[in-house]
Amino acid sequence: MPTLEEVLDYLGIDYADETVKNNVTHALNAAIAAVKGAVGEDVLDFLPDNPKVKELVFLYTADLYDERNTSTLKANAVNRRILDSMEWQLKLELRRKKEELV
Where are the domains of the chain? Predict the structure, then answer.
């Protein structure tokens, strides 16, 4: 999972005071929950080092952080397609990983 420092770097934030860190942390926690909800609650257990999981968390976090002052979250069409595709890919990978254990 991305660390707070990695997310700050991803967002291009060079200096983060406590308010910025708190806002980014809230967005990061919500992004992790969103990925778990979209892909599977145990995605981090079965795919802990998957770069798509990390990137999906980055993308969700950026969207949540950037749109934190609006009433609705808006992902542009390209990002939405990427998010949808990554979610489905990860769902399939998670299912395969689980089936390997059976």
Answer: 4-100
> Interior CA angle at 41 toward 70 and 12, to 5°?
40
Which segments within 5-92 are labelled E, that is strand?
none
Instruction: Give the pLDDT confidence of 5-56 residue by residue, as tens digits.
Output: 999 999 999 999 999 999 999 999 989 998 998 899 999 999 999 999 999 9
Dump the DSSP string for 31-72. Answer: HHHHHHHHH-TTHHHHSTT-HHHHHHHHHHHHHHHHTTTSSS
CA 71/CA 73 separation, integer angstroms = 7
Measuring CA to CA, how many Å separate 8 from each of 79, 80, 88, 95? 19, 22, 27, 31
